[in-house]
TrEMBL record:
GO terms for molecular function: ADP binding; ATP binding; phosphoglycerate kinase activity. Monomer. This is Phosphoglycerate kinase. Pathway: Carbohydrate biosynthesis; Calvin cycle. InterPro entries: Phosphoglycerate_kinase, Phosphoglycerate_kinase_N, Phosphoglycerate_kinase_sf. GO terms for cellular component: cytosol. It catalyses: (2R)-3-phosphoglycerate + ATP = (2R)-3-phospho-glyceroyl phosphate + ADP. Keywords: ATP-binding, Kinase, Magnesium, Nucleotide-binding, Transferase. Its cofactor is Mg(2+). The keyword Transcription does not apply. Its EC number is 2.7.2.3. One of its GO terms (biological process) is glycolytic process. Belongs to the phosphoglycerate kinase family.
């Protein structure tokens, strides 16, 4: 099966599979989803869940995850719907103190300002009473005036505060039920366009039980493309990095079973090296090394992991200081040796025979990786992006978040070109793609199952 690209125009969503265009009805059959294109939106208030989690310290890092939801917004407005938008920003819930910390650095204000410039529509962010420890307890009745103005077209849209500021968003009990009922009372229709927000929270999952619910255009697009990752043209090469090994065991095992070749980076790679060569590397937990031994054993039999031999060792994680970092070689590893922090892959690793051959011969490449400890150590990631781009035949899938931010900051021209290149697809949620790979089915996501159950009801 040849790789396929999925496209969504305003009011039309379709996939191109081996040259055959699938119209909305076909996508519906393929995805078994209630689609935005099927919804009656005229004079309806539409509660739209998006993944606009692009703000850090009050500033937008990369507007891509906002831009890819614009077609859904235009579609809703053009067909007579009135928008109430919601998204989470950051992680305001402190697991240690079990409190919600409300900070302007994690507000939706920067996103709203961007949307108003982009769409020339006035959005209003309602203000609700906050508590010291539980965030916002309720959507109070003051919002009713705004909803009335929205229906009467006195304002262009409402953008709710950060959903994770609400006590009910991640709750399991009474606060959750109250919050969901309050959300449902605002609107006539729910649209989920937040592929990157796969956790079954109030605003992504439970709300589907109370309103007619549909998949937005971005959601459809990403679900189509993740199918191509699950059924890739071969050879299929995946590049995966991460800061913790134990959280990646499930998807990493599934990826290993799927790919022809696997390239590892970051702490995941450091952990693998410790397990294979019996060395110690700063920042790698002994418990993770034990877990990684299973992968080492499996690879001795199947030989899928392509090792990058030239690595960058640093004495510190505080920065890149002359005389405190150096290139080392995996070929010199011996049991019992101890290394400080391995913080990057030397670019020459991507020019070595095995790595270069794997990436140049690939027909499908999936990337969810930042190779170095950014922002100080970036050369390995930069070289990786260049080598991947030099393969003109491969379908290239980049997992969102840090992967896209690094891609944009290191290669802004290439990044911009990739947005319009049919050989590239940039996912908004890299973690969601890994979750789908682990499940083996995009329909296995709880948020997607909620939409399908809504259709059945």
């Amino acid at each position: 099966m040849a790789p396929y690209t999925c496209e969504n125009g305003i009011g039309v969503g379709y996939c191109v599979d081996d040259g055959r265009e699938l119209q909305a009805s076909d996508v519906n059959t393929k995805l078994q989803l209630p689609l935005l294109q099927e919804a009656d939106l005229k004079d309806k208030v539409v509660l739209l869940r998006v993944d606009h989690n692009v703000v850090k310290k009050g500033k937008i890092l990369d507007q891509y995850r906002i831009d890819v939801t614009l077609p859904t917004m235009y579609n809703i407005v053009e067909r007579g719907g009135r928008l109430i938008i919601m998204s989470h920003i950051g992680r305001p819930y402190d697991k240690k103190t079990k409190t919600i910390n409300i900070s302007e650095d994690e507000s939706v204000d920067a996103v709203v300002a961007y949307l108003q410039r982009k769409m020339r529509i006035r959005f209003v962010v309602p203000k609700f009473r906050t508590t010291d420890k539980e965030g916002i307890l309720d959507i109070d009745t003051s919002i009713n005036w705004l909803v009335k103005d929205l229906r009467n077209r006195k304002i262009g849209g409402i953008y709710l505060p950060n959903t994770r500021w609400f006590a009910g968003e991640e709750d399991k009990g009474e606060k959750l039920e109250r919050f969901v009922m309050q959300l449902a009372g605002l609107a006539d229709v729910f649209v989920n366009d937040a592929f990157g927000s796969w956790q079954p929270h109030a605003s992504t999952y439970h709300i589907s039980k109370y309103l007619p619910s549909y998949a937005g255009l971005c959601m459809q697009d990403e679900l189509c493309h993740v199918e191509a990752v699950l059924t890739p043209s071969r050879p299929f090469v995946a590049i995966v990095a991460g800061a913790k090994y134990d959280t990646k065991i499930g998807p990493l095992t599934k990826i290993y079973n799927t790919v022809d070749k696997l390239v590892l980076g970051g702490v995941i790679y450091n952990t693998y090296l410790c397990a294979k060569y019996g060395v110690k590397i700063g920042g790698v937990q002994d418990s993770d090394i034990e877990l990684a031994k299973e992968l080492v054993k499996k690879d001795r039999e199947q030989n899928k992991i392509v090792e990058m031999n030239a690595l960058v060792e640093s004495d510190t994680l505080e920065g890149k200081f002359e005389g405190q970092y150096r290139t080392i070689n995996v070929k010199d590893f011996a049991p019992g040796q101890t290394y400080k922090y391995i913080v990057d892959v030397d670019p020459v690793s991507f020019e070595s025979g095995d790595v270069m051959e794997a990436l140049n011969s690939a027909k499908t490449i999936f990337v969810n990786a930042v190779m170095g400890f950014m922002p100080h150590f970036w050369h390995g990631t930069s070289k990786m992006d260049e080598v991947i781009d030099n393969n003109p035949h491969a379908q290239k899938f980049f997992g969102g978040g840090d992967t896209l931010q690094a891609f944009k900051s290191l290669h802004p021209v290439l990044y911009q070109a990739a947005l319009d290149n049919v050989n590239y697809y940039l996912f908004t949620g890299g973690g969601t793609v890994l979750k789908v790979i682990e499940e083996g089915d995009p329909m296995g996501l709880e948020t997607v199952k909620a939409l399908m159950q809504s259709k059945e009801n």
